[in-house]
Design brief:
The complex is a heterotrimer.
Chain A: E1 8-9, H1 37-49, H2 52-56, E2 70-73, E3 76-79, H3 96-105, H4 120-123, H5 128-139, H6 163-170, H7 184-194, H8 200-203, E4 221-223, E5 226-228, H9 244-253, H10 263-271, H11 278-289, H12 306-323, H13 349-357, E6 359-360, E7 372-373, H14 382-392, H15 405-412, H16 415-418
Parallel strand pairs in A: 1-2
Antiparallel strand pairs in A: 2-3, 4-5, 6-7
Helix pairs in contact in A: 1-5, 3-5, 7-11, 9-11, 12-14, 14-15
Chain B: H1 2-7, E1 9-12, H2 21-26, H3 47-60, H4 70-73, H5 75-84, H6 114-130, H7 143-154, H8 164-181, H9 193-198
Helix pairs in contact in B: 3-5, 3-7, 5-8, 6-8
Chain C: E1 5-6, E2 10-15, H1 19-30, E3 35-38, H2 46-49, H3 58-63, E4 76-79, E5 87-88, H4 104-107, H5 122-130, H6 148-162, E6 170-171, E7 174-175, H7 199-210, E8 216-217, E9 227-228, E10 234-235, H8 257-260, H9 262-265, E11 271-275, E12 278-284, E13 291-297, E14 303-313, H10 317-327, E15 344-347, E16 350-357, E17 376-378, E18 397-401, H11 423-432, E19 436-437, E20 443-445, E21 454-462, E22 468-473, H12 478-498, E23 502-506, E24 523-525, E25 549-551, H13 566-584
Classes of the chains: A mainly alpha, B mainly alpha, C alpha+beta.
Chain lengths: ~425, ~240, ~600
């Protein structure tokens, strides 16, 4: 787990791969009536679904939405903004139109551009009504006087005008249009996943500039310690092996018969998806499972490969204590390595991280147990970590390239690895 | 972990601190290994003491064709590292006075810690050996002489200072055998030789496939907390 | 230390967050109360404190006592007889006081027994069957004030909390095949089936059956299969690692507060825990009849006062007694005048063992494959399950092949007449490791209470705060020694029938020896009962003297039965919690009028 004192380590925006959900389409709202209960409740739900608090509430001062949480981007640090209705330091002085322009257009009231650490390239797909509901909810918050200098980036990235180029490349404004060939549930899922939920922020591969790589939506993406795995319907790499209910259970409780959420996804489940309604989670699952994967032919390493032999020894001596000799684990308690496709993800980032440093899974009301994986980084050498991960990624029908000791060594050098 | 601790209002140590040590500790799911022995020279013993203890542990556990003796297994290294650490200082013991000699059933009451006991007993033993005909150092004595000395200590016929002979013998016997059977991370049981000798598979944690297999020899080799040779990929 | 700083008032303060503290905290937070638990030791979590790559360390945990309280923090003094001077226990031996969140529940073996119905009526039952003259004059056994039938639902609750693995012997009066036919009627089967048994344990069962006994698997909190308890907390299946007793469980398969209650408890906003804080006193108002809270010292030696309306004392047996004595709750026991209650009827367990040696290569026991509560047992010689008339003693115990592992520092038995060291010793270890048995606590006998076995405050030795240590005065009495000879002989007969070539009967002999491990089942000292003259707490574990103080744990046992105590002390905790919720909270005050 990240230390709370360390910044969120995310590509652009998004502390967590949030699966976002709005509420059912709203009846017409009067823009003047900003105390409308239904609208505020819808906005509150959207704030949960978009996991606004993940970035805008600093866990150190606990003042809700008052900003100041450091967010690590590939280009340096930014601080999240104060989005309470404080007129001086928050967004209390903004008009609804200005709020909409920021959220969906990436434009500040003074015309300057936001960094896409704020996921406006996803929020642009939200409906005007949902954005207004969100604003209505934010207006009900306690104003907090807290000035945040959001801009911490080094030159040249601190030149916000440069963002216009970025926007030209990667920002495709506009509300999501329904696909008439798909079910209502599927379309609702698309709206949540591609819009407020901004799942792609953690799960879609990025270009070197941090923009989504086209054609690879939700195929998995690594940012430092964690790999947001492929969450398409791909049977070999994605969640094709999970039923729709498996997906819903995972989002609702952080656990299902195969896997458990840890790392950033644990935060997402705890703060966001576990608090969303079942219909929306079903919609998300339905949409995700229908996303095409990417067929990549990889054949498993020979069991006689020296790394496989060593990895098997380590696995049987150490890992079998919990994951069992056959890799199947214990449903809802110990992840099933044999039947979890993300084990053989393109990038083993999360696996390396978890083996080196351990991880606690999320505790939710429905699944309070929150078992944890211990750290093996002090016990195993780089070569041994590489061997056991290589073994796990090439057993029980999985296939993946061998991991090198150098990759493990590099992973040890990241900040959180050094943090004790 | 963080999520969990954030939910619980856990107050550690000082009442003024709301979230303390436990949260910081939870940021890495790890624990220390205890006090693993480091390689290298004696940490507590002088070279002369080290040689004496090596001679003695090699009689308590003599080498044979299949298994090293106490010296080869590293029992003297084990004792040295233990005496240099918390055990040698009686850390964690109740050490407030008065120190009064009681009956056996009341347990150890000496104010002397193990490190001090070894130091004074080994010196006394060396003086005793030098005073014998021939005047050899304990470390130079032949096996049968060493056995005689150990027997004399065990039976209290060789007293050293006060009652220390028997006390020292019991400590040496316990520590030697603990070093022989403890995990090799502590410096003894080198190459898991003691575990191989008896058929103990070591730090394994999963016998689910074996609990129902009765009267069958368990086939897998022992493993230490530090692993085993097979954990490192062989070069092709 | 300066004058205590005062913290905001709580509804409930819980002293000690082990099994009973966790149960009470969970029950009382469910009742809507604001609860703070104060724990002397550290917070403990599975993956941090006993992960599967570190915990299999016999030296660290068994020999050097990593998870236990350190005597340097506090200890007791000990003597056998009242005319001796007590000396401090400088390093643990006979028992191992727990420390830290989870308490003894972290490193117990998870044997999850119920006491016999007659155990709760020890005195009246024995007098009815054998006459008052049959009991030794100085034996001070009493009835508990609570019946098995009253506790049954609470035993059941604890077993279903833990997922206990076992084979029922008596369901609603119907004797069940394969279970313990002597047990009291249970309302339903165990939540999970019995664990698998390794070779030697299985052989013991076969031999016992051949001898005409009714062997059954020991009820185990090491689970035979994955389990989800009524709180929604999940446990995994035991992997028979052989590192259970003295060790924390690395794979969530041993029932403990960590694996059954704490995940739910820590999510509650009306629960708080303070670890590394030691309660030094229960504070009373001027009348001495009402607790106002507790005083504790944090890890920086700063003293704090925690006011509370209800105090739950749920520390380890002797520490319960110590806090009562130091706080002036109740009257200290005086064995000469035979007056007072705090410290009275202190007991342990009467344990013995038989080491047995079998033919090499013909028997391969693989002793390292085991769990903490593994084993096949017989109960023919427990409690009053047999006629004591011809034998001249009372009490008894279960016995079984209950060996918990083959950890080699402790478990390398050699045949009699083997030297303690040298080449012959080494060869004997090599030859016998796989074909010798050393169950450890194979005979698990009761210890009844006596007038001269008790706890009080030591006149000489102090803890680091300058408070007097508790002084233990304890010795075996003839009744227990006779019981042990009889039981150990019966026990050895089973090993003979298994085919042992050689056996060493390790009878329990006096005087009681503080260096020799004989379970951590210290009981009594603040016992429950129906008469405030002879008990510290009433049948609901409520202090007779201070009605807003409840005292949990085995300190309430009037005498100890021939079983491990955890099942019973946990059932009593649920029983007491129910009384607090259903009676006390509606009308705070004495639940029983003397």
């Amino acid at each position: 787990m990240p230390d709370p004192s360390s910044p969120l380590r995310l590509a652009w925006a998004v502390a967590a791969a949030t699966l976002l959900a709005g509420m059912p389409p709203s009846r017409a709202q009067s823009p003047q009536d900003n105390q409308d209960f239904t609208q505020i409740e819808r906005g509150r739900y959207l704030a949960i679904a978009a996991d606004c608090a993940a970035c805008h509430t600093n866990p150190h001062d606990q003042r809700a939405f008052a900003g100041g949480r450091p967010i690590q981007t590939p280009f340096g640090m930014v601080l999240s903004a104060n989005i309470t209705p404080d007129r001086e330091t928050g967004i209390g002085a903004w008009s609804d139109a200005q709020f909409d322009a920021a959220l969906r257009g990436g434009r500040m009231p003074n015309g300057s551009r936001l960094y896409p650490a704020m996921p406006y390239p996803y929020f642009t797909r939200m409906s005007r009504d949902d954005v207004r509901a969100l604003r209505a909810y934010l207006n009900t918050l306690e104003p907090v006087h807290h000035r945040v200098e959001t801009d911490q980036l080094p030159f040249p990235f601190n030149v916000r005008t440069g963002m216009s180029l970025w926007d030209a490349l990667y920002f495709h404004p506009g509300e999501l249009q329904a696909d008439a060939t798909k079910s209502e549930q599927w379309n609702r899922g698309a709206y949540l996943v591609e819009g407020a939920g901004h799942c792609g922020a953690c799960h879609t591969p990025k270009t070197w500039l941090g923009g989504d790589r086209s054609g690879r939506q939700l195929h998995g993406y690594s940012e430092q310690d964690w790999f947001g795995p492929n969450i398409t319907g791909d049977e070999h790499r994605g969640i094709g092996g999970w039923s729709q209910n498996d997906v819903v259970e995972y989002l609702k409780t952080g656990h299902n018969r195969f896997a458990a959420a840890s790392g950033p996804m644990a935060e997402e489940v705890a703060d966001s998806s576990s608090r969303m309604n079942s219909a929306d989670l079903q919609a998300i699952a339905s949409y995700l499972k229908d996303q095409p994967g990417q067929r990549v032919a990889v054949s498993a390493l020979s069991p006689f490969n020296p790394a496989m032999i060593a990895g098997a020894a380590i696995y049987q001596d150490l890992c079998s204590a919990c994951h069992k000799a056959d890799g199947t684990g214990v449903p809802y308690l110990i992840p099933n390595l044999a039947q979890t496709a993300s084990i053989a993800s393109r990038e083993p980032t999360s696996l390396i991280h978890v083996v080196l440093r351990g991880a606690t899974t999320v505790s939710t009301a429905d699944e309070p147990t929150a078992p944890a994986m211990p750290a093996f980084g002090d016990q195993l050498t780089d070569q041994q970590v590489a061997a056991v991960i290589t073994y796990v990624r090439n057993s029980w029908g999985h296939a993946a390239a061998a991991l090198s000791a150098g990759e493990v060594h590099a992973a040890r050098q990241t900040k959180s690895a050094r943090h004790r | 972990m963080i999520d969990k601790l954030r939910r619980r209002d856990l107050l550690t140590g000082t009442a003024a601190v709301v979230i303390g040590q436990s949260l910081a500790r939870a940021s890495v799911i790890s624990t220390d290994t205890g006090e693993p022995a480091k390689a290298g020279p004696w940490q507590y013993f002088t070279p002369a003491e080290g040689a004496q203890v090596e001679a003695l542990v090699d009689r308590i556990i003599p080498p044979d064709a299949q298994t090293p003796g106490g010296k080869g297994a590293g029992c003297a290294v084990f004792i040295d590292r233990q005496l240099a650490g918390p055990f040698g200082r009686h850390e964690g013991w109740y050490t407030l006075p008065p120190f009064v000699k009681g009956i056996k059933q009341q347990g150890p009451q000496s104010s002397k810690n193990p490190a001090q006991l070894y130091r004074s007993a080994l010196a006394a033993l060396e003086r005793y050996c030098r005073g014998q005909p021939g005047g050899k150092s304990l470390a130079e004595l032949p096996a049968e002489k060493l056995d005689e000395i150990l027997q004399a200590l065990e039976s209290s016929t060789l007293q050293l200072q006060g009652d220390e002979g028997k006390t020292f013998f019991e400590a040496l016997l316990t520590d030697t055998q603990e070093g022989f059977f403890a995990d090799p991370i502590y410096g003894g049981n080198r190459d898991m030789c003691a575990w191989k000798m008896i058929g103990f598979p070591g730090a394994r944690y999963d016998y689910r496939d074996w609990v129902g297999r009765h009267n069958e020899r368990y086939p897998h080799p022992p493993v230490s907390i530090a692993g085993r040779a097979d954990w490192t990929p062989k070069r092709r | 230390m300066s004058i205590a700083r005062k913290l905001p008032r709580k509804d409930v303060v819980v002293i000690g967050l082990g099994w009973t503290g966790s149960i009470l905290a969970n029950e009382l937070t469910d009742a809507g109360l604001d609860v703070v638990a104060i724990e002397r030791g550290p917070w403990r979590e599975t993956a941090v404190d006993f992960p599967p790559n570190r915990v299999q360390d016999e030296l660290r945990y068994r020999i050097r006592h990593e998870l236990f309280l350190q005597p340097g923090q506090t200890t007791f003094t000990f003597r056998n007889k009242m005319d001796q001077s007590a000396l401090p226990i400088r390093t643990w031996g006979a028992f191992m006081p727990p420390n830290g969140v989870g308490g003894g529940g972290v490193h117990w073996n998870a044997e999850t027994w119920r006491f016999l119905p007659s155990d709760f009526l020890t005195r009246s039952h024995l007098i009815e069957r054998y006459g008052a003259h049959f009991l030794p004059a100085d034996m001070t056994i009493q009835d508990w004030g609570v019946s098995y039938a009253e506790l049954e639902p609470h035993y059941d609750r604890f077993e279903y909390l833990c997922g206990t693995s076992g084979t029922a012997g008596n369901i609603k009066g119907q004797i069940q095949p394969g279970g313990n036919p002597f047990e009291g009627p249970r309302s339903r089967p165990y939540p999970t089936p019995a664990q698998q048994q390794p070779y030697s344990h299985t052989l013991f069962g076969h031999a016992a059956r051949e001898l005409g006994y009714n062997p059954f698997p020991q009820p185990s909190g090491n689970l035979s299969q994955a389990y989800t308890n009524p709180l929604g907390v999940r446990l995994g299946p035991c992997s028979y690692c052989g590192f259970c007793e003295w060790f924390g469980c690395a794979n969530y398969s041993k029932a403990s507060p960590q694996t059954t209650i704490l995940p739910v408890l820590v999510r509650k906003s009306n629960f708080q825990a303070r670890d590394r804080c030691e309660v030094t006193r229960i504070n009373l108002d001027r009348s001495g009849r009402r607790a106002t809270g507790v005083t504790f010292v944090d890890s920086s030696d700063v003293e704090w006062e925690q006011p509370a309306d209800l105090v739950i004392l749920s520390a380890y047996t002797i520490f319960n007694v110590q806090l009562l004595l130091l706080s002036g709750v109740g009257t200290a026991y005086d064995p000469v005048a035979n007056r007072g209650v705090i410290g009275r009827n202190f007991t342990h367990q009467t344990i013995s063992d038989v080491e047995s040696f079998f033919e090499k290569d013909k028997f391969i026991f693989n002793p390292f494959i085991a769990s903490g509560a593994i084993g096949m047992c017989i109960d023919e010689f427990n409690g009053d399950n047999f006629d004591h008339g011809p034998h001249g003693f009372v009490g008894g115990g279960y016995m079984g092949q209950v060996q918990t592992g083959g950890r080699p520092i402790q478990t390398t038995p050699v045949p009699p007449d083997t030297p303690r060291w040298g080449a012959r010793w080494k060869q004997a270890v090599r030859d016998n490791y796989l074909c010798a048995l050393k169950p450890g606590t194979g005979v698990h006998g009761s210890m009844y209470s006596y007038r001269d076995v008790y706890c009080d405050l030591d006149p000489t030795y102090k803890d680091r705060f300058g408070r007097p240590l508790v002084r233990i005065t304890m010795d075996f009495h003839d009744n227990e020694l006779k019981q042990n000879v009889f039981l150990t002989d019966r026990y050895a007969e089973v090993f003979r029938a298994m085919g042992a070539r050689q056996m060493v009967k390790k009878y329990r002999k006096g005087p009681y020896d503080i260096t020799d491990y004989q379970t951590t089942h210290l009981c009594g000292g603040a016992i429950m009962g129906n008469d405030p003259k002879t008990s510290a707490v009433n049948r609901y574990l409520q202090s007779w003297d201070v009605p807003n103080l409840f005292v949990m744990g085995a300190s309430g046992f009037p005498q100890n039965a021939g079983y491990n105590p955890t099942g019973t002390l946990a059932a009593l905790a649920y029983w007491s919690a129910e009384a607090i919720r259903s009676k006390y909270l509606k009308s705070p005050g004495p639940l029983v009028h003397a």
